[in-house]
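Re: How this chain folds, sequence and tokenised backbone to follow

Filed under: protein folding, tokenised backbone structure, sequence and structure records.

Contents: The amino acid chain and a row of whole-number tokens, matched residue for residue.

Body of memo: The sequence and its backbone structure tokens, given next.
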Amino acid sequence: MSENEHYHVYNRGVDKRLLFIDKKDVERFWEGMQLFNTDKSIGSLRDLNSSHRSSHRVTVNTGERKLVDFIAYGINPNHYHFILKPLIKSGIEKFMHKIGMGYARYFNTKYKRTGALFQGKFRAKHIDSNEYLLHLSAYVNLNDRAHKIGRAIPTLSKTSWEEYLGESTEEFCDKNIVIEQFKNREEYKKFAEESLESILKRKLQIKELEDLGIELVNA
């Protein structure tokens, strides 16, 4: 994967199993998205004390480099979607290895299980057009709605939607490549919701999603 290009990265639980069983699991995965995004080794999240966790940020630690930029993300009970831009050679591969191994170790220890947690290696598709990027950002940001998860079990999903709308204090994603193409956040909101609606009206058929470069991950 080439540096400074954009990729749709996604995976789900092995045998479609749940990756997140309670709110703390989602929080731990979200924590990993932040802490593992470095070219330095930090060990296991389980081994970090709370002060290290709260203070460790790549942007303030001299000598560290981020592996990827997040453009958008969607976390749901049995799968996730990321839009990533690698910042160094093999940045996505290194980041996904770290978060995959780190979270699996946490999950297996907590739930006293062994074996693979994710369905093989993550999948990644090159985002080769601006139209693809815009529609994909809508799908990823509203992924909980696409799978009708948010209202049913909101604590087991987390997306960058509120950050895109300016309704969150988080500044995790590099949103400019998307947001700057619209007059304001309200215009983007309208675009994203209409984009999702058109996908749902077509019943999220796999063929049509693939036309946008999106492969449906069943929830």
Notes: The chain has a mean pLDDT of 85. The chain has one domain: 7-211. Residues 7-211 form a domain with the Alpha-Beta Plaits fold (CATH 3.30.70.1290).
